[in-house]
Amino acid sequence: MKIRSVTHNNRQKLFEVRTSSKILYFPYSKADPQSSAADPIIRVFVDKELHREGFTYTLKSGAEGTVHIEQVLEYNQDPGYLRDALLYKLTMEAQKRVAASRLSKREIIRRLGTSATQLYRLLDQKNYRKSVDRLLSLLHILDCEVDLVVRVKTSGGRAA
Fold first, then answer.
1. How far is the C-alpha of 2 from the C-alpha of 159, rounded, in Å?
2. In angstroms, what is the C-alpha Rg of the chain?
3. Distances (CA, A) of 24 to 37, 69, 157
4. What is the pLDDT of residue 156?
5. Looking at beta carbons, which pairs linking 57-62 to residues 24 or more positions away fall under 8 Å?
6. Is this prediction's pTM over 0.85?
7. For residue 3, which of 57, 50, 59, 66 has the smallest C-alpha distance?
8. Nearest to 13 by CA among 51, 57, 54
């Protein structure tokens, strides 16, 4: 996701990050280095060296910090970001399980009812167009049980 613009609000102590589809907020307290009343943010810009996937800010003291869009998405609990993170974790686990499995890839493909190309797409951690249900099917074939755990957030995260 690309950042279109970013502004800072010293009164509310947060960055306002605009993407093509939404406006997200990121508090100064989550950035490093942190600003203070004695050392406020004087400049912020979308960083082209990060391919517009992050922004850099400068404090009055001259210290600089950079925030990546993934930090902003994670802080805001963006559903698309959370889905992609889940897909990534499941894919990495599936890769490990396929490598350790006694089943041949041909047998895994047969049980999934798919093609070799589709299996390799399913195992590609950079492919986010796959579905969670297909990964769950693969893990089931590999004799894995996947549990989804829902719990109350601890004090380290945002309030629900």
1. 26
2. 21
3. 23, 10, 16
4. 58
5. 57/8, 57/15, 57/31, 59/33, 59/35
6. no
7. 50
8. 57
Query: Can you spell out the DSSP letters for 32-69?
Result: SSPP-SSS-EEEEEE-GGGTTSEEEEEETTS-EEEEEH
Q: Is 125 left (phi over 0), alpha (psi -120 to 50) or beta?
A: alpha
Residue with tokens 């579905």: 131
Per-residue pLDDT, averaged over 29-36, amounts to: 95
Phi-psi region of 155 (alpha: psi -120 to 50; beta: other; left: phi over 0): alpha
pLDDT of residue 16: 98
The per-residue pLDDT of the chain, averaged, comes to 94
pLDDT of 159 above 60: no
Task: List residues bridging with 56 in a β-sheet.
Answer: 45, 66
Distance CA 70, CA 7 (A): 17
Structure tokens at 122: 């399913």
For residue 145, the model assigns a pLDDT of 94
Which residues lie below 8 Å from residue 114, measured CB to CB, with a gap of 6+?
Answer: 122
Predicted pLDDT of residue 155: 67
Amino acid at 134: R
How far is Cα 94 from Cα 92, in angstroms, rounded to an integer?
5
Comparing CA positions, the residue from 44, 38, 86, 81 lying closest to residue 65 is: 44
Residue bearing tokens 């902003």: 72
